[in-house]
Amino acid sequence: MKQSNRIGGRIFIGLTFLFLYLPIFLLIIFSFNAGDSSAVWKGFSLEWYRALFQNRLIMESLYTTLLVSLLATAIATAAGTFAAIGLYSLGRRKRDALLVVNDIPMMNADIVTGVSLCLFFVAFFQGWGAFARWFNGVQGVVELPERLVLGFGTMLLAHIAFNIPYVILNVAPRLRQMDKNLVDAAQDLGCTWMQAFWKVILPEIKPGIVSGALIAFTMSIDDFVISYFTAGSSTSTLAMRIYSMTKKRITPEVNAVSTLLFLSVLVLLVLNNVREVRQERRAQRQDVRPPSFFEKLSMRLSSPAWKWARRGLAGAMACAFVVLTVLLTGATSSQPVVNVCSWGENIDEELITRFEDETGIRVNYQTAESNETLYSLLKSGGADYDVIVPSDYMISQLMEEGMLEELDYSRIPNFALIDQRFRNLPYDPENKYTVPYAWGTLGLIYNTSMVDGEIDSWGALYDDQYAGDVLLIGNSRDALGVALLYLGYSVNTTDEGEIREAFDLVADAGRRGVFQGKVMDEVFQKMEGGNAAIATYYAGDYLSMLDNNEDLAYVIPKEGANWFVDAMCVLKDAPHYDEAMEWINFIASTDANLANMDYIWYASPNTEALERYPAYYQENSEDGEPLDLELYEIMAPPAEVLERCEMYTVLPPETRTLYNDLWIRLGT
Amino acid sequence: MSKELIRLRDCVMSYGDEVVLDHINLYINDKEFLTLLGPSGCGKTTTLRIIGGFLSPTSGDVLFDGVRINDVPPHRRAVNTVFQRYALFPHLNVFENVAFGLRIPKTERDGRKVKLPEREIHERVMEMLSIVNLKGFERRPVSALSGGQQQRVAIARALVNRPRVLLLDEPLGALDMRLRKDMQNELKRIQQEMEITFIYVTHDQEEALAMSDTVVVMDGGRIQQIGTPEDIYNEPKNAFVADFIGESNIIDGVMRADGVVEIFNRKFQCLDKGFAKDEPVDVVIRPEDVDIVDEAAGQLRGTVTSVTFKGVHYDTIVDFYGFKWLIQTTDFCPVDSRIGIKIDPDGIHVMKKSQYSGMFGDYSSYSEEYEELDVVEDEDEDGEGRDAREGGYEE
Fold it and tell me: What was the ipTM of the complex prediction?
């Protein structure tokens, strides 16, 4: 009985650890995968680590993360330590009450902290704007900036704010353990309070300070939610960057960077533990050990002869800190800059470097997860982008709301290269606001080894024959749009009867168990791994799936499909309008379009680029292999195919509400 | 014998409505061993902390060598303290603990900061360690020392700075009985050797009597009596002092004339004078001043209710007319035997009635009273309470 209990306990513990660590183990394994799939192993390679260190966006965000974590940790540790000492000079009742208050921010949901800080900063900026206008009006000596935006500074403040409680939490117990008479004793022996702090309090609470700092640092590095709400549009931490990279799929680069992040946190923890164990052992042995190098150094530094060296060092550190902060905030103002927001994995990053080298304009390249997140970011007033790259229907909506600025086409000569097919489209009939960036189709992907014969109709999605093997696309517009097409209606219909008919078709298939699930990003794993037979997804993504599973086929069904255009626009009151024009012109060039097409596998709107791409592909492929023209047709379908396709237009609000209601009723 | 060093003038310490010290007036002579004695919460530690500079009195003056020092912070006073539970610095070894004060640069009169040369520090620390018998322990971490050794380090750490006055806050409270006796002698020896003033706080009356030149008995924030140990013991001013110092039977009496006091309606000869005729008084009779005689020959007659063997003597509780006395005698009287007692005139001490009258001196609940005396102050509670009121780290 007892024996079996013990075995049961061990198995349980084993399973717990397996559950905890297996996912991380898998992540580490796949970071060494030669292929770019997260499901199929193609051999060992360090390729993704190399790619990682060459990925400028990741490296930039890594730099931001380290900087914000280090600064926040340093400031929060100092502030938290003194706050804890202050708490301990209060009466017991007040102290206990305040310690409870201190615990609340740690238990509070990150999202609440993040949103409230964001609201606070935005409200403060509005008040500041009013004050600055008044102040600049009444005097001319000092000019205060009138427009403040969320950015590195606000994120740093937020990190400091959420780190301080952790420091207090770690320092407080050390103070509680400390004999209160120690400070009295030091003062009694001739110390001022400050000397007593350095000579007695600090050595006593040092372990608490160090572990507080380590935890604060880990929390800072880890944080996603609070940074997300306070970093504004022009700053990204590593976590935010990873999140935006996973919009489409989890690339092995993400695995690699996550592995490195995991390992560095692990190293920090191990270091901390080893340190503690050593200290304990030393305390137990109570041995006399010669002072270590650092102790000798600090002893020497604390002697009066070194007073000026000490002050110099402190001064130098303070200067370095100030310079660093000024550099960080000032870097943007001294150099021309353009703030761009696009999607993850939507540009060949070499283009950014090339543009910067050619023009001297720094590109602050950010990414959003979807049209809807971009929209809410813009609406919240937290963003200060110049150029955005939304999709067709979102452009209509932004135009209707007057959020876009007209472009100066005289400064975008490369607009002439844009194919007639992609000008004056319904979302911008007079073409005053947009320059197309990429286009593609939404089609049907199926696994030829799991399906008999060819599929040429959307009907396959609702066919009992494939029950349990069909993936329903995870957004309402696409899922219902495809059903409308199958029924012979327009994807932009506002007729409630037609929409309800489409909903019934989908819901009925759902009840019959045709769908395996509602998916977005998971479509990659499922289709590549052969876990599902049929899915609805975008052509460009089909091409990357094909790399990992040759059995996949893509078809634009006979009922037609949706096609879409992402186009560059400039926001109203963009702070860097001139630079934005240069950027748009650069991206519209044939070279840039070729590079992008090769990288993202979505078609370019540039006539020359479309013509030259097959040759470009052959030149750039390693073994001079020619482009498979069938695939190229999927990437950039010819005019006759495009004619069968329909573009989304913005729907009236009541129709949008209907979509939402129906979508919720569909459940999972 | 010597000149006055410290004077507290009308010192009041209060926290809101709570008065901790109530108009304390006290002077301390140079090279004196003075003890502040009293039960927990009597204000003795507060008085010490005022002298040390950790507290500033709500009103009143603290004078040092005739100069008012109310606002002088602790690090600028020529006073050092040995704290309750020693407060040694755990991160430093014995040598560095003792050297701590010497390593702090001192500000000269002209504003220059002077640091002692390392050689002098070494000499002074080693000299001090030999005075407290801790030679050879320099490199030990303080956590590796016994209580008595830690005690010596604390004393050395304070004395190495050559203070004019050493303050000791219940320094022997955490030691066991045997060690305590040794350390009492040690402290007295060091005080005489170093020729400095000791101000010693304790709640242990034996310790106070054994070591002090002067004892200050405190209760309820007030000084009850100041005097030599002999004065305090033999001529207690009120029932509180009589009870707190040693064992006392305290009985209601009436002063019938100079040298005549009436107890239990019987007149006794005594040496006290100067009371009004028929004034009600408290009469103190020490247990060892009572002679047991035959019932017939006794001035008072009573019944033995309990006997405890104490080694040198028996603690015998005798019931006289419903009032129970403690008598310490070498004669054994069995329980329930009838006895008589005789008291010499110099065994009777008459005191004025005070707020403490009727509170002490009855041994009806003898055994419990004994335990009560042995209760060590609950220092934690005391410390926390004080901390909560005062704040931990005031400058």
Answer: 0.78
